[in-house]
Amino acid sequence: MSVPAPAPAPGPAAPPGQPWKAAMAAWIGSALEYYDFFLYGSAAALIFPKVFFDASDPATATLLSLATFGVAYAARPLGALVLGHVGDRLGRKKIMVFTLMLMGVSTFLIGCLPTRAQVGTLAPVLLVLCRVLQGVSAAGEQASAGSMSLEHAPPDRRGFFTSFTLSGTQGGQLIATLVFIPVAQLPEEQLLSWGWRVPFWLSVAVAVVGWAVRRRLHETPAFARQAADGGVARLPLAVLLREHWADVLRVIAGALIASVSTVFTVWALTYATSDAVGMSRTAMLWVGALANLVALGAIPLWATLSDRIGRRPVYLIGAVGSAVAMTGYLWAISTGSYPLTLLLGVVAFGIVYSAANGVWPAFYGEMFATRVRLSGLAVGTQTGFAVAGFAVTFAAEIAGPGGDDWAAVALFTAALCVPPALAALTARETHRVPTELLGERATREASRRERVPA
User: Fold this and answer.
1) Which residues form the Major facilitator superfamily (MFS) profile domain (predicted)?
2) What is the pLDDT of residues 88-131, one digit of tens each?
3) I need a labelling partner for 252 at 20 to 30 A (CA). Which of 119, 281, 330, 414 fits?
């Protein structure tokens, strides 16, 4: 008869107030980091086709500009491999500080780049390089912030505390939109010459504020215990793929839900302001701003609900509901009715999508043991996000030469919501599992398989 492995001893208690400090550091850092990241999305849709690409061919210029938006997502899996390894070896805090500084510097440099009219094809090359650095930074941001807040949180409120990472992301998107609204109202000549640069230069403040907040954090008790016991993996990626490969695949599939965000943020903005629909830039930026404002309240509410009824049902509401809600939103844009577009935009992105968006940091993070949690979150999410990032480019192609086949884009977006739903249906429910036991089932199953003779 086999003897069950003893449960690991609970780690040291977190310092008083540390769960809130970790959550707020995750919120502020993610807000500042994704201010930079989403600022690029607005510029890629409205400015960069005219500044960095051949404006004489608007359709091609827009397509190429949207492709540079996806470049950061392509860089994210590589960044996840490196930063996930370092975070599981040396700690969450070091990655949180590094990613924020890298994002601030790379975004500031975008605001300093010469245009195509000044240096020719070198301009888009430099733009892509800066975008790659943004992608590497983003690869470690949410994984490190999510791991930090999860491992500091009380066991019965992990959903709530980890949701601060994603409400921070929405806050950053809101700030980026609000900053871009007055910029977009500048006369065309000023907008394209210097106006678009100002929001990117403000990222200097991002680096300073983020460093001041995150450097005061304590390392998590779970990681400190793991390091003190000599349990830090020498090669976290090898352990991850050996013991948690099925959950890595689930997270990759689940991360495709981010396609809803990229289509909403970038493609829908491009479509609504095109000649086919003719809505104003400022009006559509307000749709995004109000949707993100609603999301700031919806995300912690959905996360709190997941602490009571489980991660899976709440996540499924977001995944399945987004397929329906985004179809309604794109249809509303096609009608040219701004009130209808505003209403359905807030419902689709601010409320429905927030169910999945607010729960996934806890849902995904709870699949992995402490020694590979950051790697599992980073590799799984960033691989899926790499596909989601290029959803905008695919949507531009699917929309046809006129860029107005919204129904095809809606069907495409709905199809990308299917893998996340399947991932949730096949995942374990973990909201009541003690923090020190998270991921241990996969580890024990892997050990048993290794002991079984061939």
Assistant:
1) 22-432
2) 888 888 888 888 888 888 889 999 999 888 988 898 889 889 88
3) 330
